Amino acid sequence: MDFYNPYNGLYPIDGLTRAELALATLNYLDLCASCDNITWGDGDSLDRERVRDQLIETRSHNQAFEDLIRREGLTA
Question: Residue 4 and residue 11: Cα distance in Å, rounded?
Fold first, then answer.
């Protein structure tokens, strides 16, 4: 949260929550555990950037899903 929190983070992400960041971190750790070419770097800058990328990707997928629901006139 020190890097990405929306209030005083070094690289703030609008609306970021602890839960959202925790989920992105867990997804990244799962990826590290299941992939031979991606390794955990003990929280270095590359790890932080990859977690940020997970956040951006998840938000994009969530937005696409919400848009589809809205277009189809459904409720989530």
Answer: 5
Half-sphere exposure of 51 (CA within 13 A, CB side): 24
For tokens 């992939």, what's the residue?
Answer: 35
Which helix H or strand E contains 48, and what residues bound it? helix 45-72
Domain annotation covers residue 65: yes
Question: Helix, strand, coil % (nearest 5) of the chain?
Answer: 60, 0, 40
- pLDDT digit string (tens) for 8-39? 999 899 999 999 999 999 999 999 999 888 88
Note whether 16 and 4 are within 8 A (CB): yes
Domain count along the chain? 1
Domain that holds residue 24: 18-72
What is the pTM (predicted TM-score) of this model? 0.76
